[in-house]
Amino acid sequence: MHVTKLLPLAALCLALAACADKDQPAQADKAPTSARAASSPATAQGHAAALPPDQAANSRPPSVSQQARRYLCPQGPNACPAGGPLIANSDAEAQWLLRHGYPTEHELARLETLTLDQLKAESQAGNQPATVIYGKKTALAGRFYQGIDILRRAAVAGNLYAYYGLSDVYVSDTANKNLVDSLAYLRLAYLLGDAKASAVIASRGLSSVENVVADERAASLHKTFSKYQRPSPRPLE
User: Fold this and answer.
1) Helix then strand then coil, % of the chain, to nearest 5
2) pLDDT tens for residues 91-147?
3) CB contact at 8 A, 222 and 181
4) Angle at CA of residue 107, ends 157 and 115, nearest 5°
5) Model pTM?
6) Ramachandran category for residue 143: left, alpha or beta (phi over 0 → left; psi -120 to 50 → alpha)
7) Cystine design at 94: which of 5, 88, 90, 163 (Cβ 3.0–4.6 Å)?
């Protein structure tokens, strides 16, 4: 009697199990897009590994260390102790220059030849040195406050090279020329970690009184302009 009642129930269970097995492939096809996206990098890596070594190497962007090495002294480590602010004597100093938006000497020469539109495009693409040259050229082209604002925002974001741009603007022969402010922005770069700014400061040849006034102005700018930004010491060996 009980066996007779259980037979239909067992048959129903078997039928349901068979239906569930048929539905599983369809459910797998409906996996969330995010899960598919998460698997994409592994697939891409698999394709990259299948490329010939020379093609695989060319498909990768230059590493940070490769970019930083462009700043190194051409004669080798520690061979340019008196090098300018764009020259690095060690890998650590080269990384510091890259991180804080400095151009190489070659890159600076290239950027100086570009138009404002070209500089703007490179700046918008994330080129930090281009942002500085764009701000400087904008200020010197008659849009003074717009250019100063570009440089100010770059400086506040951590681009220490922007202080060199600000100094260049104020030392130029325009209606806004101000030698004390020009020196003060270099002094601010020094206070924020760029010890090599001191050589540029010395080259300006200002009087003792002007240097004192510039120091006071730099202290004021440290409060009002850079909002007491924490120093990032340049590695000097």
Assistant:
1) 70, 0, 30
2) 999 999 999 999 999 999 999 999 999 999 999 999 999 999 999 999 999 999 999
3) no
4) 85
5) 0.73
6) beta
7) 88
Inter-CA distances, 150 with 155, 171, 176, 179, 186, Å:
9, 18, 16, 20, 17
**Those residues with Cβ within 8 angstroms of residue 27's Cβ, 6 or more apart along the chain or in another chain:** none
The dihedral through the CA atoms of 15, 16, 17, 21 has a sign that is positive
Residue 104 lies in a domain: yes
Q: Where are the alpha helices (DSSP H) in 158-237?
A: 161-171, 179-191, 197-203, 208-224
Query: Would you say residue 99 lies in a domain?
Result: yes
Quick check: is 27 in a domain? no
Q: What is the DSSP string of 113-162?
A: TS-HHHHHHHHHTT-HHHHHHHHHHHHHTT-HHHHHHHHHHHHHTT-THH
In terms of residues, how long is the chain?
Answer: 237
